[in-house]
Write a structure and sequence with these properties.
mainly beta; Maltoporin, Chain A; five-stranded mixed β-sheet; 39 strands; about 55% strand
Length: about 725
């Protein structure tokens, strides 16, 4: 049966490649027209009469934006020549998210690393777009910059992969996941992203079935380095960035700040983000290093009203959706992250590491009552929004704001202590690295306001072991891990993983992994006064992976092919109890199952020191199974995604492009399949002098209509450009 699935997966690949502030701020027409029949049929044309122009580019604002950037705390950057240097080879790249730092060739997991130079070279201004170019990750984005953002990894959504920033887990306690964080943490604050695919529960515990996204914010640089950057673009995008990074004796500093102000796709949509980031280091010797890090993100977006059909799509009840501007409907997040780390080398072979982390995120939502928002044409006959007034097909239907001005708040707070003792010793023709770890992790969650009050906390202690053994001069790699976790609500959980890889003289590496994982029930699922269930057990999973890695042409060509299969049991779902005495009842229960499997192909080819070709393809087959044994294709997951990029790098300039292609995906209730789309992005950077550079980036060059959140209009063609000024004192 498993062999048959493998054949089906590779057939699918073949067919794909060769197809046979807290206050928010009116009358207009709807901007999205209803669709014709959408029971897995091609898209019907839509007109967008009042959509905001996305092509207009405010070049005149560029100099004033740069001046604003210069007023921010000023930061360091590498020399322009370093910025434009080619990517490093696999033997030189060190993976840190595994907690035992080692070259990428000694990793039996599939890993992708994106460094600061690549982020700057492509001119990214949204971390979502960085991750979209990596295998196994896809997004449902809805609206303009900084708005709704729902990441997926290997067919799983929030709560099944973990985001770590500067070693600190940022998953939310009320509802697992990171909210819209990946669309709101600015790339200008990021030095490095590591994507570890596959279960990492032995190192990180809960919420890591699909993998871990580890983000490192900017660190000090040698010397004294300053940077000021200004950028403008479509949707009246304005960004200012300032930075100072350097060292003084045994101390290092990295001070960065970024400010973003943008409009959205619809009238009255806005996005603002203020994010300072600080990192200080103290290295009195090569045996001791101390680091303190602080990140603050204050983001707010105002978004349009979405009206859509909740009926199952059918000829009698066709799907419809409209967006209307709403001047006073907003979402605001205030997030703090602090970490303190110490690394102490006790002997040449023994070191200890200590981490304390704290995060707090407060989310605020409010929708004021603005009365009449506008009108929409009735999408069917008869049609009603209030079950009082009915309209014939095409008649204008007035739409009134349903907001009441009552806000609601959520606050998530995490505390983390992590201690590692790492012993590295020679072993035969190789090396043995053993890590012993202890972690204490506490999550507090509170919700209050419009939807009532909720308060709860969870706490757990974990002991874990990881061992990496390299033999035969590094050609044979064996690793294993084990974690025992004691949770104060559901009790204990033990997870583990084993992996092996062997590199042949031809530079071909075969590797395989098996790992178990889990997801702990959330505070909301446990302690909600109406629907919570303190008897919930964790969701349990297991994953197998088999992969092939190949290096050729003096390591200028690197390719990797991975097959994975993951199963989840005891998935927590809400079970309705119906209406009793006029009250809706129900509770959360362990009842469903889930399964994903797929293939990832990743390739990088440096033709020479100037030209580079990179590509990846992911096939994802994701299903869920209810308590009655009925299977459903997972919604909002595209089976096929692919990237193809080409870049050219010279001493003073670089340019490139990326083609992103994604197949169809089901909308949230599984009745409509959204259209596939292909988009083309271009970017370039030119050093005018040793200090000044200009750069630009265009996304969706041909204005392809994009569907990831059905009913939401996307920006279309989008362009930004900026000026970067740097100088250093040596």
């Amino acid at each position: 049966m498993r062999g048959k699935r493998c054949i089906q997966l590779f057939v699918a690949i073949t067919e794909y490649v060769m197809p046979g502030a807290l206050s928010c701020r009116g009358l207009s027409q709807a901007t999205v027209q209803p669709r014709a029949d959408r029971s897995i049929q091609p898209r019907a044309d839509r007109s967008i009469p009042n959509g905001r122009s996305h092509v207009g580019f405010p070049f005149r604002d560029l100099l004033s934006t740069l001046a604003a950037a210069a007023c921010l705390p000023l930061a360091a950057a590498a020399d322009e020549s370093a910025l434009l240097s080619p990517g490093r080879q696999v033997d030189e790249v060190v993976v840190t998210a595994t907690k035992i730092e080692r070259p990428a060739r000694y990793i039996t997991d599939s890993v992708t690393i994106v460094e600061e130079q690549e982020i700057e070279r492509q001119g990214f201004n949204d971390t979502t777009e960085i991750l979209r170019q990596t295998a196994g990750i896809q997004f449902k984005q809805a609206g303009g910059p900084g708005q709704f953002n729902y990441p997926k990894m290997r067919g799983f959504g929030n709560g099944h992969f973990l985001v770590v920033i500067d070693g600190v887990k940022v998953t939310e306690g009320l509802n697992p996941g990171v909210g819209h964080l990946l669309g709101q943490i600015d790339p200008l604050l990021i030095e490095r992203i590591e994507v570890l695919r596959g279960p990492q529960a032995d190192l990180y515990g809960s919420d890591s079935t699909a993998g871990v996204i580890a983000i490192t914010t900017k660190t000090p640089q040698p010397g004294t380095n300053f940077q000021a950057l200004g950028e403008v673009g479509s949707l009246n995008w304005k960004q200012a960035y300032g930075s100072a990074r350097g060292t003084w004796n045994d101390f290092g500093y990295s001070l960065n700040a970024v400010y973003v102000d943008s409009e959205g796709v619809q009238d009255d949509e806005t996005y603002r983000n203020t994010s300072p980031q600080v990192k200080l280091t103290y290295n009195p010797s090569d045996r001791l290093s101390v680091e303190g890090s602080f990140l603050y993100i204050d983001s707010k977006f105002n978004y349009a009203e979405l009206l859509e059909s909740y009926d199952e799509h059918s000829p009698e009840t066709p799907w419809w959706a409209f967006q209307l501007p709403d001047a006073d409907q907003c979402n605001q997040n205030e997030q703090y992250l602090t970490s303190f780390r110490v690394a102490h080398k006790l002997t040449d072979n023994l070191q200890q590491k200590f981490l304390f982390g704290w995060t707090r995120k407060t989310n605020f939502n409010r929708d004021d009552d603005n009365g009449l928002l506008g009108s929409i044409p009735a999408p069917r006959d008869p049609f009603t929004l209030d079950y009082v007034n009915f309209y014939s097909l095409g008649e204008p239907v007035p739409v009134y704001d349903t907001g009441d001005g009552v806000p609601y708040y959520n606050r998530n707070e995490n505390y983390q202590l992590d201690y590692n003792l790492i012993l590295e010793t020679p072993f035969s023709q190789g090396n043995n690295s053993i890590l012993l770890g202890y972690e204490w992790f506490r999550q507090d969650g509170r919700g209050w306001g419009k939807f009532g009050d909720l308060k709860g906390s969870t706490e757990n202690n974990a002991f874990y072991l990881s061992d990496v053994l390299t033999l035969l001069d590094g050609d044979l790699v064996l690793n294993g891990g084990l974690r025992y976790q004691d949770h104060d609500t559901f009790g204990n959980k033990t997870t583990g993983n084993i992996g092996a890889g062997y590199t042949f003289p031809s530079r071909t590496t075969l590797f395989a992994n098996y790992g178990t994982s889990f997801r702990a029930p959330s505070i909301y699922q446990l302690f909600n006064t109406q629907y919570g269930n303190t008897d919930l057990e964790p969701e349990s999973g297991w994953t197998t992976e088999v992969g092939l890695r190949q290096s050729a042409f003096d390591d200028r060509l690197e390719a990797e092919l991975i097959f994975w299969h993951t199963e989840l049991d005891d998935i927590i779902d809400f079970v309705s109890g119906g209406v009793v005495n006029g009250v809706f009842t129900g509770s959360f229960e362990n009842r469903d199952k889930g399964e994903t499997e797929g293939v990832e192909f990743i390739a990088n080819w440096w033709f020479n020191d100037e030209w580079r070709l990179n590509a990846n393809y992911t096939y994802t087959d994701a299903w869920s199974e209810d308590a009655d044994g009925e299977r459903f294709r997972s919604v909002q997951i595209a089976r096929n995604t692919a990237n193809l990029g080409l870049s050219y790098i010279q001493d003073r300039w670089s340019a490139g492009g990326n083609v992103y292609d994604t197949g169809p995906r089901l909308r949230w209730n599984g009745d409509i399949e959204m259209d596939a789309y292909t988009r083309v992005d271009l970017y370039g950077r030119y050093a005018l002098s040793d200090n000044f550079s200009v750069f630009g980036r265009s996304e969706n060059l041909f204005g392809t209509e994009i569907e990831e959140g059905l009913g939401y209009e996307q920006p279309g063609f989008y362009m930004t450009a900026g000026i970067d000024y740097r100088f250093g004192l040596r």
